[in-house]
Design brief:
Rossmann fold; four-stranded parallel β-sheet; 16 helices; 12% strand
Length: 381
């Protein structure tokens, strides 16, 4: 979008926060950004609004768009199938077209009167990295003889601070006889200098307490790290879908505040489009009675990768979950097969191009009588 001439009024990464208490702490900044966006809508009057994910802001922007007569295309659905289903009435009244990236979302919306289309997940359309292991090692100062494990603790500082200490302590409990290097891709929303300083502080604070300090290598991109790693530990979110599309075994982890976790357990209810595929809930819950939350498991319709959430996310249980994925075990082989089958569900057809389909729908909405005839589309925001 930026390459096509988009002017960024507000940076989404500056106002993106996950969790109830987490959002409340940053509400003043989020509200200022929202008012700036509303003012831009009234000032520029675009021909089409393309809203992507980010429901707490975008639902309100869609309301202003409707008042201004601006059609709304929503790409990447809010997870109304999990909670806040009452917002469906807003979708029906404010959204012209909903383009979804998970296969169960289209029937969910269509059954509730929303014009929705499953276009596929953009990550599933990307080819696997082609850089050789030797070249990747040389480019990133890695030992090609070591066993590599990828660590993806999150894309925001608060997530890293919450998740990374348990990740590092957990991998420190692995077999000391094996030479491991831990690849930590630095998300574009984070500073490499901040990440380096944070890890250095953690090492200084724990080097006397722990029997083993893991060797951490910061790398620039998650996809090749996941591709070349033997296994990975991935914070719940979009990164789990990224790991799914690469296909190497991984463990899903996440931690939020106790209040956020308690409220989520009470509020999240999966619709028939998901719950019927999940089968008997009693066979799916973890030791604490939690249903799966990782998107990879919801797409598969069963637990195909381990999930360690909140209290279950601790160094001891993390090491137990990771060990079978490092050896040539039946568990590792089964996860690889399951990930490949689940990845195939992320595209409506093997050769589908999700982003191209979004572009086609945009042009159809901008020029309903000229779509597909080479006409120049109108303005969008």
């Amino acid at each position: 979008m930026a390459a096509a001439g988009q002017v960024r009024v507000v940076r989404a990464e500056d106002v993106a926060h996950m969790g109830i208490t987490e959002v409340l702490r940053h509400m003043p900044r989020v509200f200022r950004a929202y008012r700036t966006l509303v003012a831009a809508l009234h000032r520029d009057r675009p021909s089409l609004a393309i809203l992507i994910d980010f429901p707490d802001v975008n639902f309100r922007l869609a309301k202003h768009c409707k008042r201004l007569g601006i059609p709304v295309l929503w790409f990447v659905s809010p997870q109304l199938w999990a909670w806040k289903r009452r917002r469906l009435r807003w979708v029906r009244s404010r959204v012209s077209k909903m383009l979804v990236i998970f296969p169960f979302e289209e029937p969910f919306y269509r059954a509730r009167g929303v014009d929705a289309e499953f276009v596929g997940h953009p990550l599933a359309a990307l080819p696997l990295p082609t850089t050789s292991r030797e070249a990747y090692a040389a480019d990133n100062n890695l030992d090609p003889a070591a066993e590599w494990i990828a660590l993806l603790p999150g894309s925001r500082q608060k997530e890293v601070e919450s998740n990374l200490p348990s990740l590092l302590e957990g991998v420190g409990n692995l077999d000391v006889r094996q030479h491991h290097e831990y690849l930590l891709p630095v998300a574009s929303t984070l500073s490499q200098s901040w990440m380096s300083a944070y890890i250095a502080r953690w090492v200084r604070s724990n080097e006397r307490r722990l029997r083993r300090i893991p060797v951490i290598r910061l790398v620039p991109d998650a996809r090749p790290a996941l591709h070349h790693a033997r296994a990975a530990i991935v914070a719940s979110g979009t990164a789990t879908v990224q790991a799914l599309t690469i296909g190497n075994p991984f463990v899903v982890v996440y931690r939020v505040s106790p209040l956020t976790f308690a409220l989520a357990k009470r509020l999240i209810r999966y619709p028939a489009e998901i719950s019927t595929r999940l089968g008997d809930p009693s066979q799916l819950v973890d030791a604490d009675g939690n249903l799966p939350i990782a998107m990879v498991n919801l797409i598969a319709g069963r637990r195909i990768v381990p999930e360690l959430i909140n209290d279950r996310f601790n160094p001891a249980e993390l090491a137990v979950a990771l060990r079978p994925l490092l050896a040539d075990t039946p568990a590792r082989a089964q996860i690889i097969v399951d990930l490949a089958a689940t990845r195939a569900r992320l595209l409506p057809a093997p050769t589908a191009n999700p982003i191209q389909r979004v572009c086609d729908v945009v042009e159809a909405l901008l020029n309903p009588t000229q779509s597909g005839k080479g006409q120049t589309p109108g303005r969008s925001v």
